[in-house]
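Q: What would this chain look like folded?
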Amino acid sequence: MADSAYFGVDVNPIVSRLVGESLPDGGWNCERCDGSSQSSFATTIKVLEGLLKFERATGGTTQSHKARKSGEDYLLTRRLFRRASTGEPADEQFLTLTYPTRWRYDVLRALDYFRAASRFEGTVPDARLSEGIESVRSRRDESGRWPLDWLPKGATLFDLDDGPGQASRWITLRALRVLRWWDDQT
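A: My prediction, written as structure tokens:
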């Protein structure tokens, strides 16, 4: 969707469908058609990234903006990784760092999304991001870089990193970008 919007392809039907498939808790779940009634972190971040790129390319619609804000609130209410019901981490893997993310969700991916959205809208970071920020900040090693914790399955055209457990160029870039944004705005 994002690439299509960028190149001027009419993605309004896709956006309308996504807006209409938002769940009552504010996010999305790819298993909605199978009866899932609770949003998923992974599906929600993917939809948010697409809607933001749609809005950047086209200006968006009132409905797409409202749906994006609802999805953001879904993640923010959960402090990016916590269950709404208990406050416990929804999945410990959300606090690990990976690249490429593919369809997986992690806190750094969410923070990078919120950085991009904040810059697009000209807003300051939401305080509910602070726990995620501190999680990322705490993962920095002595050399000032961040490790690749794990590598998702799937074809990789070329490796950017030396493998799990080693410092990751791409994760370090994303972490530094997010922390610079946070520190400059708060």
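Residues 1-77 form one domain.
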